[in-house]
Amino acid sequence: MASEQMTFIDTRLGQREVRLDKVVFFPRGIIGFEHMRSFTLLQIRADAALLLLQSMEDPSLGLIVTDPFVFIPDYNLHVNDADQHLLQADNAGDLAVLVTATIPPGKPEETALNLLGPILINHRSRLGLQVPQPEGNCPARYFIHKTGS
Prior knowledge:
By secondary structure, this protein is mostly beta strands. The protein is 4% helix and 36% strand. The longest helix is centred in the middle third of the chain and has 6 residues, at 81-86.
């Protein structure tokens, strides 16, 4: 059996080992970072609902993301046929849905999810897209309230 190809990258979480077959290509980049195209998902902690969408090209770029359905089971998003085709997704089940989270320094109880710019990842094709949602499709932000330690 061939060994998996690995690389080390620097992140704001320190140096991490990444399997190259886990790198996701974003043909359009991510809003505000259109020139960055290669990302990987890293666990922040084993038990955390938050992940780091880490740029493979710039160690300073890592976006905190999470599965919105953990917090909002009825979260609704729209994916047009062109985006679904670009992601090479045969159906919605092929896609992981993530949203960015903002955690103000020293105020984790004010953590907010950006629901208007979900990030879709097809792990099978290793393709990702940020898919802005039409206004009125969902609230712009969702605040996660601290429920305890």
